[in-house]
Amino acid sequence: MKKIAIAIHGGAGTLLKGIMTPDKEISYKKSLETALNAGYKILENKGNAVDAVTEAVRILEDSPLFNAGKGSVFTNAGSHEMDASIMNGENLEAGAVSLISGIKNPILLAKNIMQKSEHVFLAGTGAMEYANLLGYKLEPEDYFYDDFRYNQWQEIKDSDNFQLDHNVQKDSKFGTVGAVACDFEGNVAAATSTGGMTNKKFGRIGDSPMIGAGTYANNNTCAVSCTGTGEFFIRGVVAYDVSCLMEYKGLSLKDAADEVVQKRLISIGGDGGLIAVDAKGNITTPFNTEGMYRASIDTHGTQKLDIYK
Question: Which residues constitute the catalytic centre (predicted)?
Answer without folding.
Answer: 176 (nucleophile)
